Each structure stands twice: as C-alpha cells, then as structure tokens.
Amino acid sequence: MLSKRNKGFVLTYMVPTFLLYIVFCIYPCIKSLVLSVCEWSGYSQDIKFVGLSNFARLLSDKNVWSALGHNMFLLVACTVFTFVLALAFAVFFTSKTDKFHQTLKIIYFIPYVMSTAVVSILWTFIYNSSFGLLNTFLEKIGLSSLQHVWLGEKDTIMGALTVPLVWINVGFYMIMFIAAILNIPEDRYEAARIDGASKWDLFLHVTMPGIWNEITTSMVFFCVTAFNYSFELVYIMTKGGPNRSSELLTTYLYEHAFKYSDYGYASAIGVLLFAVLAVIIFGVLKLMGGRFKDE
Fold first, then answer.
1. Domain count, the chain
2. How far apart are CA 276 and CA 178, in angstroms?
C-alpha cells in the first residue's frame, strides 16, 4: 500500500497528465461522435442535428468504400513486408556483434526518425517519371520497358506507396525484436541445440515463442500508427490521386472537413475509421493471442 506521502506524490504527477489526456484525446473523440450526427460548417455556432443521415450518406458513398479498400491494402501489405523484414533483420543482427553490423542497425533505423514529410518528398523524387532515380536506374540497366509513371498510374500507385511506408517502419520494429530476442534465456537455445535442432527449428520453436507477446503488441501498435503514417505520406505524394486511386479514409475525411467545410460528414468518416481500427485490433488480439505460447 502507498503511504499518504507517496499517494500525494503520484497524484501530483498523474492528475495533470490525466487532464491533458481528457482535453486532447477523450474530448475530441466525444466531440467527433457528437458532430457525426450533426451538420456543421465549422465556422458558425449553427450546429444542426441530422440524426443518422451522415451515416446513411456514408453507406452509399462509393468513394468511402474505395478508400477503405486502399487503407486495407496498405495495412495488409505494409504489415506483412514490415514484420517479415524486421524479423529477418533482427535474427540476423543478433548473431552479429561487430562494429560494421552495429552501424548497419543504426542506418536501418534512421528512416523511422526522419520526418514523414521529408520521406514523402524524397520518394516523390525517386518515383519521378522524368528524372527519378528508379526510372533512371531501370534505363541504365536496360530495363526501360519496366519504367512507369509510378505515382500516376492506377496499376502501380498502391505498390509504390507501400515501399516507403515499409522503409520507414522496418528499422523501428527490427530494434524492438532485437531487444526481445536478447531477452530470451540462452539456456533455451542450448537445450534445443543439444536435442539436435537446426537454425530453422531454433527460430520456430525458441525465438518465435519467446518474442510472440512483443510481436502481438507491435502489430497492434503498427495497425494504429500505420493509418497516421499513410495519411501524411499519401497526402503529400498524391493527395489521393490520380482519380482517387490512392484515396484513403483519412485523406477523404480531410477533404470534406477542410475543403468542403462539411464537418458532420467528416466526423462520420472518422467514426467509421475508429470502428474499423477497433475491429482490426480485436481481430489481431484474437487471432494471435493463442499462438506460440511459451510452454
């Protein structure tokens, strides 16, 4: 039990933080939920209650469901490539302790600490169809037939957006998995080696169960943050174009709120986004909760 002095000390630090959380997190969520059943331009005190009409409009809006499909594509593709690469790098680097590989770890982590705006501009130049690094490289190696207007074609744009999103996140999750792997007791590996386990067996039966909780937590965290990263990157690189072929729920929400001043409908899209995220997180926890448990 905490003494009165300790309780006072804890409350002194908790109350301001809790108040800030209410003001900047809880209140905006409640406000968005209220506005989702209203009509409001954002510039007046005239807020008109319209019931569920915003949600009825949302259900019949093809752009919403197209944007949701793009969100899901990026989420699935980025999750698969990010976590597979991060795990592979983590396993590799835990077996390498020399300065060269330590430096490589730092290099791989750098994209995560870079501004998303900077990363977006960088990759916009890389994908530029006239002087971009990618098309120039393809031309130099004799593969001009593979050149594309990467951010201007419907068939290539979602894949082109996936690459920088994976590039940003791989280093961060690699570091997290390295830390988790290093916390696995060495005697588990020794026991498995004595039993004749191969490197693949060690990974599957020792490493994966040992870091499964970290993988699950990381995946939940990634699902939430991926929507934020994808909005910034997509808005800067394509603004949802061409012809809404890279539109996301967040860019569509932004358009209705700040371009059309339709805050009620934008809030309804935000509620849908929250519901989708809640379902995804629940699904991830349900799907991964029972796998690779330590014996």
1. 1
2. 31
Three-class secondary structure of residue 280 per DSSP: helix
- How confident is the model over 244-257, as pLDDT tens digits? 999 999 999 999 99
CATH of the domain at 177: 1.10.3720.10
What is the per-residue pLDDT across 54-96, written as a single tens digit (0 to 9) for each?
999 999 999 999 999 999 999 999 999 999 999 999 999 887 7
Note if the pTM is more than 0.85.
yes
Torsions phi, psi of 154, nearest 5? -60, -30
**Is 47 inside a domain boundary?**
no
Q: Residues for the chain: how many in total?
A: 295
Angle between helices 154-182 and 208-237 (to 10 degrees): 150
Contacts 24+ apart (CB under 8 A), 27-31: 29/274
Q: Which residue has the tokens 């926890």?
A: 285
Segment 8-61, tens digit of pLDDT: 767 777 888 888 989 988 998 899 999 999 999 888 888 899 999 999 999 999
- The percent of the chain in helix, strand and coil, each rounded to the nearest 5, is 75, 0, 25
* E strand spans, the chain: 38-39, 48-49
Q: Is residue 73 part of a domain?
A: yes
pLDDT at position 294: 46
Domain membership of residue 107 (yes or no) is: yes
Cβ-Cβ contacts under 8 Å for 123 (sequence gap 6 or more): 163, 164, 167, 233, 237
Q: Which domain holds residue 84?
A: 62-288
Is 118 a domain residue?
yes
